[in-house]
UniProtKB/TrEMBL annotation:
Function: Required for the formation of a threonylcarbamoyl group on adenosine at position 37 (t(6)A37) in tRNAs that read codons beginning with adenine. Is involved in the transfer of the threonylcarbamoyl moiety of threonylcarbamoyl-AMP (TC-AMP) to the N6 group of A37, together with TsaE and TsaB. TsaD likely plays a direct catalytic role in this reaction.
Source species: Malaciobacter mytili LMG 24559
InterPro entries: ATPase_NBD, Gcp-like_dom, KAE1/TsaD, TsaD
Gene Ontology BP annotations: tRNA threonylcarbamoyladenosine modification
Residues holding substrate: L129, V130, S131, G132, G133, D162, G175, N268
SUPFAM superfamilies documented for this protein: Actin-like ATPase domain
Keyword RNA-binding: no
Catalytic reaction(s) noted: L-threonylcarbamoyladenylate + adenosine(37) in tRNA = N(6)-L-threonylcarbamoyladenosine(37) in tRNA + AMP + H(+)
Residues that coordinate or bind Fe cation: H107, H111, D296
Gene from which the chain derives: tsaD
Ribosomal protein in keyword set: no
Gene3D superfamilies: 3.30.420.40
Coiled-coil regions listed: none
Entry note: cofactor: Binds 1 Fe(2+) ion per subunit.
Protein name, as recorded: tRNA N6-adenosine threonylcarbamoyltransferase
Length: 329
C-alpha cells in the first residue's frame, strides 16, 4: 500500500491506496473552509497551523496499515509554501522512521488523476483544469506526455468566484456560494463583457471580469438579496461563456476523442451542463471526476503515486523540495 498526504492549500487529507488493486483502503479529509470563511480567503499561516492539528489526527487512524506500506507520497508542488511544508515534513518523518521511499507528487497531476481513482487511465484525453489557482487546458497522451496548451494570463476561474463572493461579503469558498445565489438570480440583468472575446488566441483572463463586477457593485451601492443573486448569475454566465467560447474554438480546430474537467471548480453545475452539450455535438466522450474528488484530496495524490511507484520515481528525503508554482508538467 501507499500512504499519501495532501496539504497544498486548505484541506488536510491522507489516503491509503492498495498498489495491486488500485482500491482506496482509507481516505479522510479535514477541510478548513469554515475557519477561513470570515476572512474571505485562505490565510496561509492559519492554514499551516490547522494542518499541524489535523494531519496527525488523521494519521493516527492509519497506523494499522503501517506495516503494509511500500512508499510515502506527498504533494510538494504547486501550492502555499507554508502549508506544503507541513505535509512534506510529515512525509519525511514517516519515510525515515518506516524506512520507506518517498514520492513527491505534483498537485495538478493529482487533479488530473482524480479522474482515475480506483480506475484505469484513459488516454489520449484533453483536460480542462479549473481550480483555485489554475485555469488550463492540458493535452495528455500518457502520464509522461502531458502538455499545457492554454492557460490564464492573469487570475483563475475559481479565484474569480472567490473574489466576487468576497466583494459582497458572502463567504469562502466563493464557487458554491455564487452558484447557489445564481439559481435565484436573473443572468441577463447585467451585461458583463466576455473576456478576450475578439482574440483568436485560446487563453483565459478573469481580471477584467472581476473588475466589471466590482464597478457594478460600487454603482449599485446598497445591494438587495435580489441584486446579489442577479450579480452572481450574470457573473457566472459570463465566466462560463468565456471558457465555452475558447473551448468551442479548440473543438472546431481539433475535436478531442475524450474530454474531461477536473479541479475544485469543475463542480460547477452550469459549466458541466454547457460542456455536456459541446461534447455531445462533437461526439466526444466526457469524463467528470466524482464530486467528492473535485476539490483537494489525498486520494488523487495516491492515484498519481501508484503510477510513480510503478515507474520507481522516488525522491530522496534530503532532496525533496517545495515549489509554489510550476510552469510545465
Ligand atoms: P490549485 O489546485 O490550483 O492549486 P486549489 O487547490 O486551491 O488550487 P481547488 O481546491 O482545486 O483549488 O478548488 C477550489 C476552487 O474551486 C475555489 O476557488 C472554489 O471557489 C472553486 N469552486 C468550488 N466549487 C465551485 C463551483 N461550484 N463553481 C465555481 N467554482 C467552484
Ligand atoms: Fe487543488
Amino acid at each position: 500500500m501507499i500512504l499519501s498526504i495532501e496539504s497544498s492549500c486548505d484541506d488536510s487529507s491522507i489516503a491509503v491506496t492498495d498498489i495491486k488493486t488500485k482500491k482506496l483502503i482509507f481516505h479522510k479529509k479535514i477541510s478548513q473552509e469554515l475557519q477561513h470563511s470570515q476572512y474571505g480567503g485562505v490565510v496561509p499561516e492559519l492554514a499551516a497551523r490547522l494542518h499541524v492539528e489535523a494531519l496527525p489526527k488523521i494519521l493516527e487512524e492509519t497506523s494499522e496499515y503501517f506495516d503494509k506500506l511500500k512508499a510515502i507520497a506527498v504533494t510538494n508542488s504547486p501550492g502555499l509554501s507554508v502549508t506544503l511544508m507541513e505535509g512534506v515534513t510529515m512525509a519525511k518523518a514517516l519515510a525515515t522512521s518506516l524506512e520507506l521511499p518517498l514520492i513527491a507528487v505534483n498537485h495538478l497531476k493529482g487533479h488530473i488523476y482524480s479522474l482515475f481513482i480506483e480506475e484505469e487511465e484513459i488516454f489520449p484525453i484533453t483536460i480542462l483544469l479549473v481550480s483555485g489557482g489554475h485555469t488550463q487546458i492540458i493535452e495528455a497522451n500518457s502520464y509522461e506526455d502531458m502538455k499545457i496548451v492554454a492557460t490564464t494570463i492573469d487570475d483563475s476561474f475559481g479565484e474569480s468566484f472567490d473574489k466576487v463572493s468576497k466583494m459582497m461579503n458572502l463567504g469562502y469558498p466563493g464557487g458554491p456560494i455564487v452558484q447557489e445565489y445564481s439559481l435565484k438570480g436573473d443572468e441577463n440583468r447585467f451585461d458583463f463583457p466576455i473576456p478576450l472575446r475578439q482574440s483568436p488566441k485560446i487563453e483565459f483572463s478573469y481580471s477584467g471580469l472581476k473588475n466589471a463586477v466590482r464597478l457594478k457593485i460600487e454603482e449599485l451601492n446598497e445591494l438587495s438579496t435580489q441584486d446579489i443573486a442577479d450579480i452572481c448569475a450574470s457573473f457566472q454566465k459570463t465566466a462560463v461563456a468565456h471558457i465555452m467560447q475558447k473551448l468551442k474554438k479548440l473543438f472546431k480546430q481539433n475535436p478531442p476523442k475524450n474530454f474531461a474537467i477536473v479541479g475544485g471548480a469543475s463542480a460547477n453545475i452550469y459549466l458541466r451542463k454547457e460542456l455536456e452539450s459541446l461534447c455531445k455535438k462533437y461526439n466526444t466522450s466526457l469524463y467528470l471526476s466524482q464530486l467528492k474528488y473535485c476539490s483537494d484530496n489525498a486520494a488523487m495524490i495516491g492515484r498519481v503515486a501508484l503510477k510513480q511507484y510503478e515507474k520507481q520515481e522516488f525522491t530522496s528525503i534530503e532532496n525533496i523540495d517545495i515549489q509554489t508554482r510550476i510552469k510545465a508538467f
